[in-house]
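Researcher: Here's the sequence for the chain we discussed earlier.
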Amino acid sequence: MFVLFDECWRPDPQLGPQPEPIPGQHNSQWVRCPGQAWLMDNSKWPLLKQYTSDVLSRFSNDSRVAIWDLYNEPQCSQQVPIVLPLLREVYAAAISANPSQPVTFGILPGPLNSTLTRFELESSDIISFHSYEPLAQTMLQVAEFRSFNRPLICTEYMARTAGSTFHTHTVFFHKEKIGAINWGLVAGKTQTYFPWGSPVNATTPLVCFSNDDIQYELDKYIQLKNQYQLTGIVLYWKRLNGVQKLVKTMLEYENLFSNIIIWNNNPMQNLTFQDLLIENNNRTEIVNSNVNIKDEAKYRACQLAKTNACFYVDDDWDIRMYVRSLYSHFLLEPTILHAITDQFTYFTNLMWTFFDESINLHTGFSWIGCGSVFSRDNAVRHLKCMNFFLNNYKNRDLIPQSDQFFSIWMNQIPAQFNGRLLQSNEGVESSFENYDFELLQYRASVMSIQTLEKSLRSYFNFNLFQRKRASNTLVTYTKSPCSYNDKFIFFTNCLPIDNLEQIPFNIATDFKRGTRANLPNMRKSAYRENFTFFQEFNTANAVDNDNKTCWKMNRSLRYGDLYGIDFQTIQADRNLAFSIEYLHRKSLQKKLQISISLDSQTWIQLPKKPQSGIIYKKQKKLVIFRTQLFPDGFQVFRFIKFMSLIDDESSFHICEIRLIN
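Model: Thanks. This is the structure I predict for it:
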């Protein structure tokens, strides 16, 4: 969008080298066009008209020009009676050039019944307006502009000190299909990253989260929780004691589980509330199946759910150590699978990952039985795919092996936790006891990736699996929930398998990758050493309330390596305190860039000075953080990360992260 004339700031433009900006001042050397002298001398106006006509004629069909902004903020110099006649002349010259692109004026907020504003609005093919006010005022502006039935573009917005922010305005613009251009994003010579009225030599303003930013994210979190209320899914076969414990736990988590569905896969028993040792209640439903449909029951039960999200767990796990972490993480990216396993299974799942960006294939396997959260839409979609591909004589016996297909056919990298898990043992075999389980599992594993790869490579069934990769990269980091209170999550982008996405995949030779023929503890496994190291130094060690066990990287440090903490929800009380005990050099810890975030995607850097609220213990490798002592604007966040800005021969080595009461 090219702007021809402008009525803002300095009135005396001059040819030649321009003066350097005044340090610390917003727009300190911006000049008007044509400038006060030519504006007052109407004998110069024919030259301005000719300039307008020549430029628009020359580029009237140039695809690089989207819009012509003929005059920016004509009322800015507060001499409308003089500017308006020139404005009419410029508009006439522009129209005479007959450009193919639309023309507009940069309109300031103000009464729409003024002569100038009416002319601007009626003469614009597209209404472009400026709004640095809070969202409520912007919404009123838009409501008034709608009466002109023209496309809308907000060509200037975002002033934090005035209450206009990305968080407050971009969602509204997107919803209302209003174009938006931010003015002053780059720290250039205009210095518009300083607020209006900044004094000479003002220090660079701190970028922090405003109250509007915080409230927006709090509201969004509540909206997501309401949209994705949770149904707990439990399968019963013969382990009654485990089901009783799980149902009791889910009922105790009243604020987490809206409903509970117990699917009875044992046709020899009619399961009742009395069997579960609970009273009949409107939150719990029992489905007695007349046939054992094994894994398929998980997705059938989710299909019956009245909520948009399901939590599934086998009947022999204690979910209290991680269920809140899984659900809070799911709300970050509800389109993908979120699951937790032990260290061996987590590492195996990484090995069972597939990438081929030439066909938009980016998927991985994850067991879901230890605990997992997924959307009801994904469960329903999965059942449809199973019916389409497997409901035939050749493959019908694989339908009970639904788990082998679920995460692979989602064509998304699952969000996987590794943690400290507690498992009960009732001495009862699983519901697969009558099957050649490993043979079926092998067939299902091979078929799942072959079907996906073939469908993406051809037009046949292409749309079933074509999915844009989830944008939130944090969900694919290595992570562990705090195993003793489930109140925060430790994460790192340093995976135990380095450069995972660069591992080549060829379906002709790698179709067995996701099978038990490829396990990390096998003698010939290429990742056996990595796995052995991960077993001893995995991320769960950093959050297990034991400083004798530690997480450590299996390589030297690189620029961009990071670790961090997710506190599950925004810590709005400004009184968070936590400690990190580490074994790497204290000098390295002190040099890490510390950033905070409300949503894991927009990060702001914590000021290096003063670093009040960060206390390094002299005699220990221990650092304590008290957010109430952080600078204003940095006390409220959900995520904090520590990133290396250098390559270093050493590596991160974290032994314990604790909340401080």
